[in-house]
Amino acid sequence: MEHFSITFKPDDKRICIRAGSTLLDATNQAGIVLNTFCGGKGTCRKCLVVVDPKQEQVLACQHTVESDLTVTVLPDSRFFEQKILEHGIDTQVDIDAAVCKEHRQGIAAKTAYGLAVDIGTTTVVAKLINMTDGQVEATQATLNPQTKFGDDVVSRIAYAQTAERLTELHKTVVGCINELVARLCERTSIEAEQICEMCVVGNTTMSHIFLNLPVVQLGRAPYSAYSLDAHDVPAAHLGLQMSPAGNIHTVENIAGFVGSDTTAVALAVDIASAEGMTLVVDIGTNGELVLGTQDRLYAASCAAGPALEGARIAHGSRAADGAIEAVLANDDIDLGVIGNSPARSICGSGLVDAVAMLLDSGIIDETGRFRSPNDVSGELSPAMLARIIEQEGQLAFCLAYDGDTARPKVTLTQKDVREVQLAKGAIRTGIRLLQNRLGLKDSDIEHILLAGAFGTYIRRESALRIGLLPDVPPERIRFVGNAASSGARMILLSRKCRAKAKELARKIEYVEIAHEPDFQMVYADSMVF
């Protein structure tokens, strides 16, 4: 088969690829990761590149290679190194020396280490733990390279329909963890063979892929997991860079779409001991929820979609340099931009701020509809009024102007507001249906714990303003960081914690919210701001 040469600018990378491949295939081969929110279907239009010599903009996922090409990758199309939340809450745990004693072969005279790994759909975080004193020696994080196969678990499941493709996904994440191990070892001047134990958590799909277990059944009703159980696997079986005699422990999943990362979060925040009504929210493409007390616990997963991670938003992105992460308003708006660079996109936390600001300013009403400039002219300052523009036949709000041309650079459109409504409506619906199970009003919830990166960077007031969370005083809301990683560390160090995790996973009752009789009514109501 004929092959062609592709040169990528400004990376100065050159690869050879067969005719008929897409430019997305070529970027993957070159190690250049593009935004592929739609999984390469051509619908999100986030992977634009420029093909020389005509300077033609094309979608990398749709453009086939039929000749030698020079391609310029646009900054906004790159899957930038985003801000990744590495640290969680401080947790105390009684160290069990027996955990890795049997796996210390060949390292008796050296300090033994363990690894706590949180495999997220978007990010992978690894903590190197001293197994003697439990201290975190170093933390490394990276984007999950499986994103080239699609940005959400549904895309990954759809890709892994054959054993060969499942193995491809499996090898991709194993290679990612090995890369993190190499970075941790270099940073701490230890040998990989000193790592004798590893604890891995993730959503059910990520956990299955890591173990190379089938995921096809997760993509069709009743969405059952192949295995909800914990697994202990010899390191050599998975090809991980650690002691050949080492052990890999994966934690119990709760249900098909509520995984071991939620089990780890529940352990880390000690929800099994909660006396007051506690809600744990991990906001992502698939938002995971746990609600209850020590007496009874319910969990649910809600398909929030990727809008809060920047997908399906005209100028949306992940939390990367140049992304608006905070929006405040007075006579005009004030922006917080990651990296203190000119704004070129908006990420999830900025999106929640922006919609809250539009509501407070009266620019959009409670249904999410933009009000016309004539309707709000007497309510806004001239600077704010000038930011209401028309774009492609719909009203929009200009958040940032181009410094060179003074033309709108980052805008929020009517469609963008609708995407936020869909996301917040799904999350709020899940919470309300869990509340219904326990007969709770918003005021009955004493503690709301926000886990994960997105939950840590949003402002509580903005989340409350758009109705993302129950209507409680802001002081009841607390950020717990990467609690999944913290829980993985606890399970790594202690057999007692492993027993608690097993008990928790079985105690938490899963609710399939789409099957609740009030689902449609609650969802429609939750769409309103």
Description:
The protein is α/β, with parallel strands linked by helices and 529 residues long. 29% of the residues lie in helices and 24% in strands. It has 15 helices and 23 strands. The strands form 5 sheets. The protein has a 6-stranded mixed beta sheet, with helices on both faces. It has a 6-stranded mixed beta sheet with strand order 22-21-12-13-14-23, sandwiched between helices. A 5-stranded mixed beta sheet has the order 2-1-5-3-4, with helices on one face. Helix 13 (483-493) packs across helix 14.
Strand order of the largest sheet: 8-7-6-9-11-10
Please outline the major beta sheet: 6 strands, mixed
What number is the mean pLDDT? Answer: 90
The stretches of 5 or more residues where confidence is low (pLDDT under 50) are none
| Helix fraction bin | 25-40%
> What structural class should be given to the helix and strand makeup?
alpha/beta
Radius of gyration: 24 Å
